[in-house]
Specification:
Number of domains: 1
Order of helices and strands: HHHHHHEEEE
CATH topology: Nuclear Transport Factor 2, Chain: A
Strand content: 25-35%
Shape: globular
């Protein structure tokens, strides 16, 4: 069962990563006259300190974990970026949440471990405890900036 959950979580991770990928492009479209309009501009990430980013990530994660505990998709997905919202639907959430609770039990606590800086976003890591396991569980939250706000691009809970 553990391998099944791990495989399922790995599949969701791959789905989240691929959610923003473009497979085809329309070559008939003309680029905008102003190249700055085509560039991704970040207004939030460059201005925040690591502590401020960690505090925002903590608030987002707390909402997601509350959604997991209450089996509430709207609460869980409140801060998803548009591409992830389009790919990860309520039925996916219900299935994964049910299997995760069978495997690991209820969420109990977490401890912030740190942050990884990446070009497209920031990855936050926590060590967590769940009721059905004595092992530490790793929580990863990958946040990107979308329209001036931190949004969830990927989220995973697993033994490694």
């Amino acid at each position: 069962m553990k391998n099944k959950i791990t495989g399922f979580l790995a599949g969701i991770l791959a789905l989240a990563i691929l959610a923003g990928c473009e497979t085809t492009s329309d070559s008939t479209k003309k680029p905008a006259d102003d190249p700055a309009k085509n560039q991704l501009t970040e207004t939030l990430r460059p201005k925040l300190t690591e502590a401020e980013k960690a505090n925002l990530a903590e608030v987002i994660l707390d909402g997601m974990l509350a959604g997991v505990s209450r089996d509430d998709y709207a609460m869980y997905s409140k801060n998803f970026f548009k591409g992830l919202l389009e790919k990860y639907k309520i039925n996916d959430f219900k299935d994964i949440n049910t299997n995760m609770k069978k495997e690991m039990g209820e969420y109990q606590s977490k401890s912030y471990m740190g942050m990884l800086y990446k070009p497209l976003g920031d990855v936050f890591l926590w060590k967590a405890k769940f009721s059905n396991t004595n092992e530490d569980v790793l929580i990863r939250l990958f946040l990107i900036e979308e329209e001036g706000k931190y949004k969830v691009a990927m989220f995973s809970i697993g033994p490694f």
